[in-house]
Amino acid sequence: MLPYWVLFFCVAWMAITHMRPVARGSQRAFPMEGAWLVAIALLTLMIGWRHEVGGDWVSYLWHIDAMEGKSFGSPGANGRGDPAYTLLNWLGANWVGGVYFVNLVCAAIFSVGLAVFCRSQPRPWLALAVAVPYLVVVVAMGYTRQGVAIGLAMLGMAALQQRGVVAFLFWIAVAGLFHKSAIVLVPLVLFSGQKNRLMVMLGVVLVCLVLYVLLLQESIDNLKYGYVDKEYDSSGAAIRVAMNCIPAILFLLFRKRFRLDARAQTFWTWMSVSGVMFVPLLMVSSSSTAVDRVALYWIPLQLFVLSRLPDVFGRFAAKNQLVVFSLLGYSASILAVWLFFASHAFAWLPYQFYPWVFLWQ
């Protein structure tokens, strides 16, 4: 488990050495300085070239084997109906790299999305440190399709503030090509503070219909059977939902202290309200797995809220070391609890790096 801790402490060190928040006018994703390019490269390689890491590793190998020797789009080569992910699997199976090619491309997309989202926060390195224990280690290394979809969704959330609804919908639509469930985020643009709410509503309805026809119509029965009818349960779902609920409540209680513009405050208010609603939904749902998987798209709320708490509970624009160190301690405890006590942590241990394994086996 040492590589996971090395990754976390490297990012935590950057959060400590860059403790003062970035000026409001300079919170831009591009251009990225060298440290962020190194971070993206490190995350991409560690996530993308993992070997036998993650609970669904065997399933991903099966997807590759099922497409080997088949023409793209032929029966048996359509994956789970997620076009972009299916294309990557077909390329990996028939042209280059196998599962490692697929994982590397998905890891690169996820890492760029995560970096862009973090760099839109006043304390980008602190946001990245909050992301490492669960979003990076567990989600990106365990759920490849949904991980890349979340990365693209974070691009949309970052774009919503600067470029508006169209950019947000574009990135969510691309995310849906990797995992259909990403379209659950589409209705949130109705609450992003747009002036022409009726036009936005009509646009959202149109986008939802198009995405439904293109992505969901043929597989809605399979999704219902897989997540609802079979009543799958996820161990630890309550804890993961609570991890979203806590920052959601903090934002709702102290949102005036976050000093956001009207659009951002409205959007993140509704993100927080819906984040809290996962608690009663989990209690009444027949399938905790369905709730758990959808709630993953609310993890960016943790990064957004927690990385801003130093200014909320401390002096605005100051270092506020106590709050920063407390958040880093909280993040370290999340990583420790998961690695030592999670029921599926064995699938992540030990961490193996494909080039190293290839050279020595």
UniProtKB/TrEMBL annotation:
Keyword Transmembrane helix: yes
Family matches, as InterPro entries: EpsG-like
Transmembrane segments: 6-23, 35-51, 95-118, 125-144, 164-191, 198-217, 237-255, 267-288, 294-310, 322-349
UniProt keyword Transmembrane helix present: yes
Highest taxon of source: Bacteria
Keywords of the record: Membrane, Transmembrane, Transmembrane helix
Designated name of the protein: Transmembrane protein EpsG
